Known about the structure:
Shape: globular
CATH architecture of the largest domain: 3-Layer(aba) Sandwich
CATH topology of the largest domain: Adenylosuccinate Synthetase, Chain A, domain 1
Number of strands: 20
CATH superfamily of the largest domain: Adenylosuccinate Synthetase, subunit A, domain 1
Order of helices and strands: EHEEEEEHEEHHHHEHEEEHEEHEEEEHEE
Protein name: Adenylosuccinate synthetase
InterPro entries: Adenylosuccin_syn_GTP-bd, Adenylosuccin_syn_Lys_AS, Adenylosuccinate_synth_dom1, Adenylosuccinate_synth_dom2, Adenylosuccinate_synth_dom3, Adenylosuccinate_synthetase, P-loop_NTPase
Radius of gyration: 21 Å
Structural class: alpha/beta
Number of helices: 10
Strand content: 15-25%
EC number: 6.3.4.4
CATH class of the largest domain: Alpha Beta
Cofactor: Mg(2+)
Number of domains: 3
Amino acid sequence: MKRIAVIGAQWGDEGKGKIVNYFARNYRWVIRFSGGANAGHTIYIKGKKYVNHLLPSIDPYSDSRGFLSSGMVIDLEEMAKEIEKMEVDFPGIGERFYVDPEAVMTLPWHKEQDMLLEGMREKPIGTTGKGIGPAYTDKVSREGLKIYMLQDESTLLERLKELYALKRALFGDKFSMDYKEIFEYLIKLRDRLLRLGVNIAGSIELMEDFRESTLLFEGAQGVMLDLDFGTYPFVTSSTCTAHGVISSGFSTAELDGVFGVIKAYTTRVGSGVFPTEEHAHIADIIRERGSEFGATTGRPRRVGWLDLPAIRYAKVRSAFTHLIITKGDVLSGLDEIKVCVAYEIDGKEKRTPFTSQELFKAKPIYRTMKGWNSVKDKNFDDYIKFIEDEVELPVSYVSYGPGTDEINKK
């Protein structure tokens, strides 16, 4: 397949980074099309752990390149730190990353604003505190700063002054850095990234190469956290479906495949509805076995059983053509496995919710299946077959560990 997208089919944390890193060796470009430093894509390269919050999960041992598209909000400091960490093991790797000058920057005051707003809410959303929501808010309200503004220092300084005055009017004396400090901060980061070899180039400039190359689009978070179709308002601030590839000049109609990544169970970080959440001791067992702690925040993830109605919903919203299942090994040794096959909503059984709002009213209807001792057992094969039949999609790959190559094609 020349062009594919890898998308989280649940509430994020499905293991997309590993899957992308596995596929990346066969693709020239890995393109992150949405989100910011609130994503945490964990990959293991020859036993060493890397957590990329912004960088596309390229394969350092191939000639794959990473592109950060205009659909993202980019924390330049976080990006520099990630590249510098990889430079230790892969000198010169910074030259393989390209940033769209149309992308908006996440600034220090966005992070402060993020936490100020969270503290004001009667019902906190559970934000990561990375400034993502405020950065996207500024983008939509035409108050964002784009990467290309770093090339004109006088205009950048004037724009920062205007925005700082606006934020002071809204929030008072709440920010630790004034506009002059942020200006110096940004210029230093610009120079730091350029020294690392990072390329500033837009999708139009690269389009000829894109059109002639193999492309792997890397999603962030999961469909159930999508701004438009997720469990609003407990969502992220960007597009989590495959339709976000439009920020790179493509559409889902041009994709040869959309791979939805699911865990053998379900997790969620932060507040919001979670129909299959388990509160019994089994949740603690799964959490510990699966190391279910946020790659970005370190917070323990909420744990529940596999939710097939939510996956059917995600399938429609993101045009999935295949599924990839991860962490089946985490459930090994359990006598029984529960699977949500439908919801009860307003007294009626429903296999697929029509809107995200229906999840707030959903009561899970479970089927109990036999457990397995290892992912090589027939019972695990039966579990995969059951998922395929219920969702009406093939499970094309099965991941059984954290390492990039711990994955089998079905």
